[in-house]
Write a structure and sequence with these properties.
By secondary structure, this protein is mainly α. It has helices spanning about 5-10, 15-25, 30-35, 40-50, and strands at about 1-5, 60. The protein has a two-stranded antiparallel ribbon. The chain is globular and about 30 Å long.
């Protein structure tokens, strides 16, 4: 499963830093999820989608 978290965050008008601050996490973790260097939990994906106003499915790159 390929993720496009940082891209979706930007498309929704947010920065990775803003979202990471709301999640109390290091902003680098968001790009680590995309690069598969860190595993994301469903709960974290849901929280990100809630913050930026999208569906969890929007965080997944289906290409």
């Amino acid at each position: 499963m390929n993720l496009k978290i940082v891209e979706t965050i930007r498309k929704q008008g947010f920065t990775a830093r803003e979202v990471a601050n709301k999640l109390n996490m290091d902003p680098n973790n968001l790009s680590r999820y995309d690069a598969k260097k860190r595993k994301i939990t469903l709960e974290t994906a849901y929280e990100i989608s809630k913050i930026i106003g999208c569906k969890v499915d929007d965080l997944i790159n289906e290409e």
